[in-house]
Automatic annotation (TrEMBL):
The keyword Membrane applies. One of its GO terms (molecular function) is cyclic-guanylate-specific phosphodiesterase activity. Coiled coil: none annotated. Keywords: Membrane, Transmembrane, Transmembrane helix. Signal peptide: none annotated. Residues 24-276 form the EAL domain. This is Phosphodiesterase.
């Protein structure tokens, strides 16, 4: 994930590419304080099936810096990853998400929540056990938690990653393979990773309706995933036409602004309650919601 980190660094800190620039260190210190002060929040984005049923919610971290305003997750996650803060951020996210899941369950809303974890987390000794202990502490069944990983977990010490993931699935936690199709996608990875869901990266979904090649890539990915017994979720679905194409290609669920952007917890509760058992209904003329 070196490339991603570099790319992010270049985008944000144009003239300061060194990972130890004062700016970067400043942001890191601010993030550490923001975590301690509980200023980092989680928003939730629904995953819905084509019949409208809510398959789950994905927790996405949000940080509003007191001076800089919204800092995109890609930026501060790269900083957390390269600084050793990642395990702390992930603990924070898991703790917050599981607390929310427990509250929703107490209200009768039994919706699974997916948490993104970084390769760093998967390589942290004792990670599987700590997730299991946290689930127990919140009284949340493992089946209500999903972890989204990327193929990058296999770049460094694939055996240890495989052991950790086996530990997690052994506890009953479901694994999802995020951003599929970017970078290192390979059949070997799919075989080695104990995932039950595959998420097709937004970059293929975005132009699906207008680009025949992207459509073919999505078709092959859906077929491959299904032949391996995996559920397929398409991310970044913004319009009706894409939704229809994905349904016709046999995709299982979608996520994207067409359905809903990531929402703060209260809004998510209202969204879930408003849908009730009918699930999400596609509006006649859908207007993509701005995030
Ligand atoms: P991701 O896990 O692939 O999440 C999908 C990203 O696409 C999110 O961006 C989401 O807000 C955005 N998105 C969803 N629907 C649409 C759409 O229809 N159109 C467009 N253009 N974008 C859409 P976000 O929230 O900025 O997160 C970016 C990445 O940061 C995530 O990609 C994930 O890799 C990482 N991330 C977010 N939260 C966490 C976290 O708690 N822990 C870790 N380790 N990584 C996180
Ligand atoms: Mg994700
Ligand atoms: Mg993704
Ligand atoms: Mg992505």
């Amino acid at each position: 994930y070196q490339a991603k980190r570099d790319r992010t660094g270049v985008e944000v800190y144009e003239s300061k590419r060194d990972s130890n620039t004062p700016d970067r260190l400043g942001l890191l210190g601010d993030l550490r304080r923001a975590l301690d002060a509980h200023e980092v929040q989680l928003h939730y984005q629904p995953k819905v099936r084509f019949d409208g049923q809510v398959a789950g919610l994905e927790a996405l971290v949000r940080w509003v810096h007191p001076e800089r305003g919204k800092v995109p997750p890609d930026e501060f996650i790269a900083i957390a990853e390269s600084s050793g803060l990642m395990p702390h951020l992930t603990e924070y996210v898991l703790e917050t998400a599981l607390g929310q899941v427990a509250r929703w369950r107490a209200q009768g809303l039994r919706v699974p929540v997916a948490v993104n974890v970084s390769p760093r987390d998967v390589h942290t000794p004792g990670f599987a056990g700590s997730v299991a202990a946290r689930l127990a502490r919140h009284g949340v069944p493992a089946g209500a938690l999903q972890l989204e990983i990327t193929e990058h977990v296999l770049l460094e010490d694939p055996q240890r990653a495989a052991d950790t993931l086996a530990g997690l699935t052994g506890h009953g936690v479901k694994m999802s393979l995020d951003d599929f199709g970017t970078g290192y996608s390979s059949l070997v990875h799919l075989r080695r990773l104990p995932v039950s869901e595959l998420k097709i990266d937004r970059s293929f979904v975005a132009r699906l309706a207008v680009d025949a090649q992207d459509a073919e890539i999505v078709r092959c990915t859906v077929d491959l995933a299904h032949s391996l017994g995996l559920l397929v979720v398409a991310e970044g679905v913004e319009d009706d036409e894409t939704w229809e194409r994905l349904r016709d290609l046999g995709c299982d669920a979608v996520q994207g602004w067409l359905v809903a952007a990531a929402m703060p917890p209260d809004e998510t509760t209202a969204w879930l309650l408003a849908r009730g058992s009918r699930g999400w209904q596609r509006p006649r003329a859908a207007l993509p919601a701005a995030e």
